[in-house]
Request: fold
Amino acid sequence: MSEVRSAALAEQFEDLDQQHEASSLGMWVFLATEIMFFGGLFAGYSVYRGLYFPGFDAGSALLNVKVGALNTALLLCSSLTMALGVRAATLGKRRELATFLVLTILLGLTFVGIKLGVEWHHDYLEHLAPGINFAYEGPNARAVELFFVFYFFMTGVHALHMVVGVSILAVLLWMTFRGRFGPERYNPVEMAGLYWHFVDIIWIFLYPLLYLIGAHH
Amino acid sequence: MSTTAVAPTTGVNYLNAQYGIRSWLLTTDHKRIALLYLGSVTFFFLIGGAAAVLMRLHLIEPQGALLEPATYNKMFSMHGIIMVFFFLIPSIPAVMGNFLVPMMVGARDLAFPRLNLLSWYVYIVGGLFTLYAVVAGGVDTGWTFYTPLSTTYANGNVMAAALGVFITGFSSILTGLNFVVTIHKMRAPGLTWFRLPLFLWAIYATSIIMILGTPVLAITLLLVALERTFHVGIFDPALGGDPILFQHLFWFYSHPAVYIMILPSMGVVSELVTCFSRKRIFGYSFVAFSSVAIAVISFLVWGHHMFVSGQSVYAGLVFSALSFAVAIPSAIKVFNWTATLYKGSVSYQAPMLYALGFIGLFTMGGLTGLFLASLATDIHLHDTYFVIAHFHYIMVGGALMGYLGGLHFWWPKMTGRLYPDGWARFSALVIFIGFNLTFFPQYILGYLGMPRRYAVYPEEFQVLNVMSSAGASILAVGYLIPLVYFIWSIRYGPPAGPNPWGAKGLEWETPSPPPTENFEEVPVVEEEAYAYGEKEAHVV
Reply:
């Protein structure tokens, strides 16, 4: 009790183990709330996909599967670099940590760039943005529009999470340069890693649901 | 009231450790944040209450005595939105939970103190948006924001109100997260799960609902905002959307939210009943697990709000059966409380009067809930005053009585002062009488067929409506009395001493008000919760 308290230990905790366990549990609980948040969207998507399957099929066919696949690959690679970064942090290797954080940030930014700059831009030019310039000639136009509502909203909320993730990683990078992390204090990196993987997993579900509806025929 | 008035504690405590507005607005002390919440939920309670007063005045005459019909719609919407999201949901968790969770587990603070402060600011920002919606002209959708009324026909203030509720939701998510982590990871040595006070079991179950339910409401309100902004058909049937989907998503949160409001009160009542019966709670583990059971089942019953919405009859059957299932853990609690009273040394101090009031009123509210959970009777009673009476028995007779009971119980701990017990007992009585006079006639009105949310009604309903309005004025007086003597006691109340009730529990083992770090050294727990009357046995 009267031992010297580590500088990394917040005053409400007794020891570093307790602090580490608390922040891990806190992060997992937060991710549970995120799952429920996206869960509402996935539920809505499922209902309308069931109701209006032909329209969703037609809408999905208008997306560029290859660009989506490229983005999926980028995001999976970023999860790898993030995991390597967390490992470097636990070992106290600051140079390595900085490198992997930079790589993760770059991969994340490329993903967002492709998503907004290439895909959304293209969809906009094709008059596929509901509420803004949606114009679709063909059967099931309403259902196709509904598909694009969900497409823009789901990928938009996901991209927002990516931007938040990249910002967090940028702060961590700055903290790394300031020498804030060591083998005793790597909690923030680990927590950011959990968040990053979570955002990645959301995309793993979004990609087939949005891009691959018609893949079987 | 205990006459052993201890000399005033002269030491440094959390209230006098620092002075100045900055020391409050930037505090990370859970006890100070609890008081910030106490002030803000009281503010919103008074606004929501004012709306109720106007409504009851209006309904004295069949053609409406006071308001334009459109204004009346805005009044009940404002009353519902503010009372549900800005008073009831944060009331016990954010005030008493914040104050007590760290003290009851024997910790210096919650696991994430800065997050805790953030949650208060988030709550305030959400509240400001909602107040803006009120000032800017009001919302007439009811607190339920049903589509397509909210997305197509209602005025634009609905966006500000929905945004306010959306933002405030994150406050309750953060609070729940903090409690779950604190209860899991920060219990004092020897404080096992089954030695926890039952208040903590109730708060834990509540937190689970906050964590898992609130995000669904958040995404639902975002979809409403999206539909309104871009005129796309997510919920609007004219554009291919499905309004029933909105109801499913809304009630998936908002039915469990009922238990966010009532579970903490049940936790408070468990504490009060044992303390004032001087007896261990009957069936500790049953009461503890019934809280968890209520939390779990609460997520599976939302469809009972939608029996007449056109959802599948088979879904209705299942939802009806599951709704009946919630009655089991609720009844377990009531039976265990009454069994605790049996052969206890019961004393009728003010907190206990509120607790006993809770048990009676909650039982009535719960049993009438079964009428509404039955498919056939619900067809007759749906959207009538019967529903209003039912959920006010749960939320005012239940949740609010528990809140007031808890406030009277822990007020001496929070402020270090005693309030006048005679006035407190008197106000408990006034509230009980006023409450029943207000809401019992509404059961009859609903059974006779008076629909809810109507600004006018047939003349034969006038007698019952006047009774209800008369009761509401008594109820209002009952609420104002505690407001006066609580404020009075801060300055003039006699010092409370560390444990004025002779209660068990870690929070009573520190001075009142507690020091900033709660305990001088980490307490070690060696006995079960509520070891009333067993002290002697331990000494021998």
